[in-house]
Amino acid sequence: MTKYYLELNLDGTMVLYRTEDDEVVYEGRQADAGIVEDPDPDYTNKLDDFFQQELGIDPDEWEVG
User: Fold this and answer.
1) What is the pTM of this model?
2) What confidence score (pLDDT) does residue 62 get?
């Protein structure tokens, strides 16, 4: 199973990498996933939904890294 790690940046951007080769899979804004406040207590659920719907990545396949 492919694994991914997410980099959340202070400027509101995020980058999702494939763990095996550090390839960028997604690069965009946290707002793309509905994260518009800092801190957002529901951010992991929003990211789970976003990655699953937009990229087909299940919640157990990624982590904040």
Assistant:
1) 0.93
2) 98
